Amino acid sequence: MLSRGYSRSARVYDALSRHKDYATASLTLRQILHRVAPHATTLLDVACGTGLHLWHLRDHFCVEGLDLSHEMLEIARQRCPGIPLHNGTLTDFRLDGRFDVVTCLFGSIGHCVTVGNLERAIHCMADHLRPGGAVIIEPWITPERFISGRLVCDSVNDPDLRVVRMYVTMCEERVSVFESDYLVGDRNGVSHFREREELGLFTDDEYRMAFDKASLDVVESDRDLFGYGLYVSLARDRNFK
Fold first, then answer.
1. Nearest to residue 76, comparing CAs of 59, 63, 89, 92?
2. Beta strands in the chain (DSSP E)
């Protein structure tokens, strides 16, 4: 049976992602913000997943998170007690607060799938900024970089948890598709399930047009956190030097 994204894999997401250096990525993000938004004290992480970025940023900013997956948010709540976490979509979330910084990291923006939704998502993030705020987006892979037909196998071999995730990369027009088969074993038994994930492949021009339509100016695009690139943008009511 094909499950919706992360509905069953959320519990093994961190184990499969443990090779990712969230601490260094969060330090790089802090260094960027110290330069472009030195007075920032509040931060919203959109598509926060299991809260790993929030965990590393919580001592430096007053942080909040937002994600569509209830299962991922439940893990984030256990990791980050006391941090406000919201359930919502990339394109139409509405929170009462405004923030100095809004981030969307680790290629999660690809979940917008279409250019129209990309523009709506960035506009929604800009709407949640305080004057002079920053939106930072770590993009998903561009169309020219995506490779179809790659066989991928990831695994975890812990004493109490064994996981194998296998998929073949596919592209349907301008959408990257991952139908992943999971085999998960623990002391309660072994289970198998499949999840489908779709991520839009957007060009650099499409990202920049979306920022422009949201009255955001891209001031940096030459940094990197996890190999996808990084767009650092500021609201136009701020003079950047």
1. 63
2. 2-3, 42-46, 62-67, 85-87, 99-104, 129-137, 151-157, 162-168, 170-172, 175-186, 189-200, 216-220, 231-235
The answer to whether 54 and 23 have CB atoms below 8 angstroms apart is no
Half-sphere exposure of 189 (CA within 13 A, CB side): 2
Q: What structural domains does the chain harbor?
A: 2-142+202-235 (3.40.50.150), 151-200 (2.20.130.10)
Please tell me whether the overall predicted TM-score, pTM, comes out greater than 0.90 for this model: yes
SS3 11: helix
CA-CA distance, 215 to 36, in Å (whole number)?
17
Residues contacting 153, CB < 8 A, separation 6+: 164, 165, 166
> Has residue 201 got a pLDDT over 80?
yes
User: How far, in Å, CA of 28 to CA of 44, rounded?
Assistant: 17
What integer pLDDT is reported at residue 3 of this predicted model?
A: 43
Q: How far apart are CA 182 and CA 194, in angstroms?
A: 6
170-172/2-3 β-pairing: unpaired
Q: What is the pLDDT of residues 12-26, one digit of tens each?
A: 999 999 999 999 999
DSSP labels, 81-135: TTS-EEE--TTT---S--EEEEEE-TTGGGGG-SHHHHHHHHHHHHHTEEEEEEE
Choose among 14, 182, 170, 189: nearest CA to 106: 14
Number of Cβ within a 10 Å radius of residue 192 = 11
Mean pLDDT score of the chain: 94
